[in-house]
């Protein structure tokens, strides 16, 4: 989700809830402790220099159980970060500590914001020897008998 999308959604929701990939929720008394800009510059295994920029939200829950972040307050924090840090309409990455600090993509299911699992991938598959995915074939499609079928007599 991009920054412009969450800003639009914050104008339509009554509460800000974040749902984890396992279906549980970040506690209602969470804080957004950071809205920032992360620039990552790296080289992939094929030798290509790459860069990535995301808007980053850090969620944290403390022992102040009466705290509730309102949509308007989060929108104000985002707008201030855009103004002060020059954050543009980047994809959002959310940090939240469960057993360790996790990084998530952000989605919306019509009611709640969803923390979506991120995945790693090789960016230079054509250069690092990863074989292309083999085509899967059912044995019944090629009229072969399984080796352990009684009539095959090979087991």
As residue ranges, the low-confidence spans are none
Order of secondary-structure elements = HEEEHEEE
Largest sheet: 6 strands, mixed
Principal-axes geometry comes out as globular
Q: What number is the mean pLDDT?
A: 88
Could you characterize the architecture of this molecule?
By secondary structure, this protein is α/β, with parallel strands linked by helices. The chain is 15% helix and 31% strand. A 6-stranded mixed β-sheet has the order 1-6-5-4-3-2, with helices on one face. The mean pLDDT is 88.
Provide key terms for this protein.
155 residues; alpha/beta; 6-stranded mixed β-sheet; 15% helix
Concise account of the structure shown:
It contains two helices and six strands, in the order H-E-E-E-H-E-E-E. The protein has helices at residues 3-10, 71-85; strands spanning 18-19, 30-43, 49-61, 92-97, 101-108, 113-117.
Helices and strands in order:
Elements: H1 3-10, E1 18-19, E2 30-43, E3 49-61, H2 71-85, E4 92-97, E5 101-108, E6 113-117
Parallel strand pairs: 1-6, 3-4
Antiparallel strand pairs: 2-3, 4-5, 5-6
Helix pairs in contact: 1-2
